[in-house]
Each structure stands twice: as C-alpha cells, then as structure tokens.
Amino acid sequence: MALEEILKPQDYATEVHNDWCPGCGDFGILRTVQMALAELKLNPYRVAMVSGIGCSAKTVHYIKTYGVHTLHGRVLPVAQGVKLANPGLEVVAVGGDGDGMGIGGAHFVNAGRRNLDMLYILFDNGVYGLTKGQASPTLKLGVQTKSLAHPNINEAVNPIWLALAAGATWVGRGYSYDVKHLKDLIVQGIRHRGYAFLDVLQPCPTYNDINTKEWYGGEDRAETNGGRPLPRVYKLDGEGFDPVVHDSSEIELKASKALEKSLEWGDRIPIGVFYRNEHVSMYGDRIQQRIPTYFENPPAVQRIAGPHGEPLTDLTKLLGRLTIKPS
Ligand code: SF4
Fold this sequence. Notes:
This protein is of the alpha/beta class and 327 residues long. It is 30% helix and 17% strand.
C-alpha cells in the first residue's frame, strides 16, 4: 500500500468481527491507536502489534498491521523479541492489567531495565474481564465490584510507580474516553526514543461497577464545577507539570516528582506524561556496541536457507565444542 493511501484511521481497521461488550473502554483505545498510526503515517508493514491474553488482547485482530496474539503474561518477551529481531519495526505491545501486572509482572520489571525502543499500552480496568471479573492486580484494597463475593483482600499494584521504579524512560497515563488526549499520548509514546509505558484507565462496564465512566467523570462527587460534575481525571500538563528530564542531573528530581504524582488517586487522578528521559542508552545501541552490523543486518533479514531450502547455518563447530569426551 502506498504511504499516501493510508492517512486515515479507518485504513488501519480490519474486517474481523468485534465482540467486546457495548460501552467497553477498549473501543476508545482501539480507535486512538488507529488515529495515532494514521497521524504518524506509519505504513502497516512497518508496525507490529503484540498482545497477551484477555479482552484487550483481541486488539491485534482489529488493527491492520502485523499482529501476534501470544500467551497470558508473555506479551513483553514476545514484543521485545520482535523488536530485537527486526529493529526497523515500530512495536506496540497491548494487554490487560491482569496479564501485565500479574503473571507478566517480572517481564514488566525487566523491560524497564532494557529500554528497548517500543511502546507498551496497559488496558487497566481492575478486573479479569475475559474470565468473568475476578479482582486483578490494579483493583484497590477493599473494593467490591459486582462480580466479587467479598471486598478485594489484596493491596493494588500501582503501574505508574512500578514502571518508574523499573526504569521505563517514558511513563504516561491516559483515559479511554478522552480520545484526543489519549491519541496524543500514543503518538508521543511511539515517538519516544526508548521504552515507553502507557497506563490507560479503561472502564469495564460489564464487571467493574465501581470505576465506571460516571465515577471517573465525578458524577457522584459532592464537589461540583458550578453545578456540573467535577471529573476525577485531570491533565498534568494543564497544571504546569513538566515531566521532561532536560539533562542527566535532573533524573532524580524528575523521577521523584513523577513518583509523587503516581500516588494521587481518589478525587483527583492525573493523566498525561509523568516522566520522559531520553538520556538513557537504548538496548539496540548497547547491542550495536557488541555487534557493529546489528542495525544493517539484524536477525530478521539474515538468510537462513538456500534456494532449495537447505539450511545455511553450520552448527558443526558449535556442536563440536559441546561434545563431552569420555574420560
Ligand atoms: Fe470490555 Fe469488560 Fe466486556 Fe471485557 S468484559 S469486553 S473489558 S466490558
């Protein structure tokens, strides 16, 4: 497809039947990813979407790019593998909070250490929607959604705090019903040079009847905006918050301010960019220091077979080194 033909979000839509529940926050994220790809004029063959397991994981079927639907909790290892094998691709990983903060928690921490140039979007709704609404790792302690027999007995993981502690170099949070703002965040996350993590507050109207669109919109709050609801979500940049590390001497200061902001929850929930630091080396550059031809000749473009399918790799020497000789 010629680049000039793919400027509209609908050009990134597939014809696969969408079976998300009506009103699901996933729709806003799907739409904003398509809008962001169109704004960045990214040809579909230059983009790889990778997902884990869950309602959110179906996203890769609805976006016309390369797509890999992997195993529960394994979205980041696969996405990182895709990026390492073919660094010319824009890699966008997507998954739910159960997938990413539960079984995938260790991968989440180690992705921060590597700083691969990719974006990970977390669909954060506090429940395991695909399996009937059990409490997920981001549901707050004591909250009882309609699918729980008792209030949640565990403390919640804070994805923003964890991403910062793990070393992610761009950390943001969006809200799936604020489409324009979320699209801007996805564009920034893809453009960021390094590992970008975007937490998206994504109401699940089927199983989470606490953190709903109305709740985020502040409709239950006594405090109002001249008689109208005062939303809980507010924009960091609207309050002059500067997340950018302008030089390395600012890393500690900006990280601590971002951590402080990450703790806000309840009547005020910040969205926007918490932290951006492009003064950390990326994993691809670290590899290139060891293998100077890495970017010109990455694994994905190396020939592995001859014209008749015969393997081109000769393992004889390697196997020879591994042979155990009888004493
Ligand atoms: Fe969306 Fe929840 Fe339905 Fe899953 S169960 S599709 S998260 S509303």
